[in-house]
Amino acid sequence: MPSDADELYGLAFDEFIPARNALVRELRGAGRREEAGEVAALRKPSVAAWAVNQLVRTQRKGVDELFEAGDGLRAAHDQVLAGRGDAGSLRSAVAREREAVEALSRLARGLLTSQGHELSPTILERVSDTLHAAALDDDARAQVREGRLERELRHVGLGMTAGAMPVRARPRAPKKPAPEPKKDLRAEREARRRLERATRALSTARERRDKAAAALDEAEDAVAEAERERADAERALRELD
């Protein structure tokens, strides 16, 4: 049995609730009711968050590379925005961050669910999203670094996706024939509006997906708790016979 709350997040996925409940009982038995209450309030991680926790706890070198690559990408992005960077350096920084995410995601594929199956493509996508967020966002990194993440994360900053250039270099306009600025401007505005609408729709869809996943996790917690209570009741009944 784990000796503290931190160890709970390093256990196999299905061991979290039984181990948490056992630790709560031990703390209560020792008269440490405040600590017992804090442990009882801990939520079981989602499958994606659990997978990220395992990577953080077992793949320190790869996680350090992820953070360094994220720092490099942010620095390259800032340099371009300030007019001091170049597209080549930015492309290299994007590629390095993407490779760091993909390397850890490949390792996550080797993790097994409670049923002994590999993680689904959807779960792996959430793992990649979380790693990407940790690379580029300080708050996300702080949550991920301790290996006690409860829910997956996403980075929604403009232009910082791992698969695309944060800032796109515009092609040089030809001198002849003369461009049609008004027509091009209208087309650009329409393209931006379409991108904004699609981005909002994607964000809404992901939020709905995340809420559904959280509800499923809570339901699984309730089932596991009910099963434990039933087992305790059956054991007490047998002892009376």
List the helices and strands and how they pair.
Layout: H1 5-8, H2 16-29, H3 33-40, H4 47-58, H5 60-81, H6 87-108, H7 121-136, H8 138-145, H9 181-240
Rg of Cα set? 24 Å
Number of helical segments with 4 or more residues: 9
SSE string, helix = H, strand = E?
HHHHHHHHH
Morphology call: elongated
What is the makeup of the main sheet? none
Span of the ends, CA to CA: 30 Å
What is the compact description of this entry?
69% of the residues lie in helices and 0% in strands. The chain is mostly helical. The chain has two domains: 45-168, no CATH class; 181-241.
Describe the structure.
The chain is 69% helix and 0% strand. By secondary structure, the chain is mainly alpha-helical. It folds into 2 domains: 45-168, no CATH class; 181-241.
List keywords for this structure.
241 residues, mainly alpha, 2 domains, 69% helix, elongated
